[in-house]
Amino acid sequence: MDPILISETDRIFVLTGAGVSAESGLPTFRASDGLWEGHRIEDVCTPEALARNPALVWEFYSMRRAAAKEAQPNPAHLALAALERRMGDRFFLCTQNVDDLHERAGSQRLLHMHGELAKSRCEENCGRPPVPDFAVYRTLNEVPRCVCGALLRPHIVFFGEVPLGLDLIQEKIGNSTIMLVVGTSGSVYPAANFVHWAHIAGARTIYIGPERPLNAAAFTTIVEGAAGQVLPELLTSS
Fold first, then answer.
1. Known catalytic residue: 196?
2. Which of 53, 55, 93, 200 is 20 to 30 A away from residue 76, measured at CA?
3. pTM for this one?
4. For position 238, what pLDDT does the model report?
5. Which CATH superfamily is domain 1-26+73-114+163-238 in?
6. Torsion of CA 125, 129, 132, 136, to 10 degrees
7. DSSP string covering 87-154
């Protein structure tokens, strides 16, 4: 496929999903047996799980932190960072991933709609902002407390919680002329609706991933393939 034509006036909104991180060796939560790295999602990624067994939740996310620390950005991350350097403020990246691989590749104009592994926040939502936290905790006793006294929790949007930055996301999509969706199945909402918002805004909609997404009919262009192989060619400047 020829490179994506991006003019000097185009504004691009990029949405990335678990498929991009998977190419760096980080597993997705969609498994055929319904387990996520050996755990039921209901046991490690819901508000109820945190209230019921915070030790297990922290054990799980400490394990994910350790895995993310060992992973490296792949060519897809690097290609998107290079595109941002070309486009500047006309570029915006929204990721469903909680790792920091986009940042480590050089991306700066981005939003983690599902939170960030390398941060913690107050379990009681006392209003204090999330704090950087790269620690891998072996026991619940090692987990720090907020200054208000409550236990810290991973800065992750659990299933059943509202994603972060939806107002900003809607604004950026509304101003975009191109939407590029990379490595996401189209099965997780509200992210699966973003392409429909982009259609309303009149944007071109392009999908890149190893398999057709569930919302394939909403895209004007679909390119099947590994993002790390396809993106560098599609985003080559003309």
1. no
2. 200
3. 0.93
4. 46
5. TPP-binding domain (3.40.50.1220)
6. 0
7. HGGGEEEEES--SSHHHHHT--SEEETTEEEEEEEETT--SPPPEE-----SSGGGS-B-TTSPBEEE
Helix (H) or strand (E) holding 222: strand 221-224
Query: Which CATH number is correct for 30-70+119-156, 1.10.260.40, 2.40.300.10, 3.40.190.10, 3.30.1600.10?
Result: 3.30.1600.10
Cα–Cα distance measured from residue 222 to residue 224, given in angstroms and rounded to the nearest whole number:
6
How confident is the chain (238 residues) per 10-residue block, as mean pLDDT?
A: 86 96 83 62 92 96 94 97 96 97 97 97 93 95 95 95 97 97 87 91 93 88 93 80
- Residue 30 has what pLDDT? 59
